[in-house]
Amino acid sequence: MTEERFLTAQEAAADLGISLATLYAYASRGMLRSESVPGDPRARRYPREDVVRLKEKKELRKEPERAAPKALNWGAPVLESAITLVRDGRLYYRGRDVIELSRSWTVEEVAALIWTGDPADGERLFQEEPPLPPALPEGLLPVECCQAALPLAGAADLAAWDLRPAAVAVTGARILRFLTGIVVGRPASGSIASTLQESWAPGRPEAAVLISAAMILCADHELNVSAFTARCVASAASNPYDVVSAGLAALKGVRHGGHTERMEALFREAGSAAEARRTLANRLRRGETIPGFGQPLYPEGDPRGAELLDLAARLVPGSEAVELAQALAEAGRHLLRDHPTVDFGLVALARALDLPERTPLAMFALGRTIGWIGHAIEEYGSERLIRPRAAYVGEPPGVQS
Fold this sequence. Notes:
Elements: E1 6-8, H1 9-16, H2 20-28, E2 35-37, E3 40-47, H3 48-62, H4 67-71, E4 84-87, E5 90-93, E6 96-97, H5 98-104, H6 107-116, H7 122-125, H8 142-156, H9 165-184, H10 192-200, H11 207-218, H12 225-235, H13 240-251, H14 259-270, H15 276-285, H16 303-315, H17 320-335, H18 342-352, H19 359-382
Antiparallel strand pairs: 1-3, 2-3, 4-5, 5-6
Helix pairs in contact: 5-11, 6-9, 6-19, 8-9, 8-13, 9-10, 9-19, 10-11, 11-16, 11-19, 12-13, 12-19, 13-19, 14-15, 14-18, 15-17, 16-18, 17-18, 18-19
C-alpha cells in the first residue's frame, strides 16, 4: 500500500473509472503525474490530489454548469497569469523559487521582476519621489492609514492614469514607497526594508534583511481573493491606486491577511512554550477554530511559513518568542496534523524581532502590493472586463401573490 497522499495505478484507474492503459496514456500526456515507488522502481504511484483534480475535470465536462461555482473555491484555473506558480509544494515568481529569492534579493528587485521581468529595473523604478503623506486621524491601524491615504494620493497623481505597462511599473514603485511612508509615519528614505527597520526595530540593522524576506515571501500567491479583486478592478481600467485600495480591502478580511491578527491573539493567549499545547487543546475542546495551520495548496506544509519560522529561530535562537513559536508549531503538527502557514510565520518573525503589534499585517500588505501591481499590469494588457454571470436561485418571476 502506498502512502496516504499517493494512489497505486490500480487505485487511480478505479477512482477515475478508466483502464490501466488509459491511465498510462494520461500520464504520458502530462495530464497526471507519476513517480517510482520506493523499493520497487517498476511500479508507479500517483498523487491523490492529481487524481482528484482530473476526476473533477471529467465530471465538469459532463455537467459544465457546475464548473464556475467549483472554480471559485480552490477549483480549476479561471485566469492566465505569468507571475506566480505553485507546484509540488514550492512557490515560484516568474519561474524562480521564492525561498531563494527571499534569501538573496531585495524587495525592489523582486518588484521589478514581477512588474517587468527584469530585476535590474529595480533601481530605475524606485528613483521617483512618492507623494507626500497626508495628515490622517489619530488612532488608525497601519493598514487603515494606508486605506485612508491612498485615494488622496491617487487623486493628486495624474500620471497614474497612464496604464501602459512601463508606466504602471513606475507608478507601482511610487505607491509602494508611499505606503511604506504611511506605515512608518514619515516619507520613505533609502530602501523599503531599511525604512521599515529604522522605524520598527531601531538599532537592529540586521532586521532589515528579515523584513525584506518576509515581504518577498508575501509578494504574490497566485489568484487569491485580494489578487482576484485587484484584477477585477484593473479590468475596469481603474488606476493602480484604486487597484491597491481594493486589494487592501480584501486583504484586511479575517479570512485572508487579517488572519495575522488572530495569530497574534493566539500567541498572546498561549504566553509561553509550556502552555502552547494546552492552549491549542483547549481551543479544540471548545470547538473553536485554530488559525495559522494548513494551506490547501501545500499538503506537506507552507514553505513560506517554514522559512519565516526558521528565520526567527536563526535570529534569536533559544529566545522565549522563538520557543513559543516552535512549541505552537509542534502542537499544531501533533494535534491538527497540519503545518504553520505564512500568517503564523509572519507573527513568529515579528515577535522574534520584537516589532510593534500589527506589523505582521503591515508587512503582508506592503509585500502583497507588489503582486497587485503585477496583476494590474497583466489585466490592463488584456483589455477585457471581468464580468462573470450569476446562477439565479431566487424566486421565479410571476409567482408573487
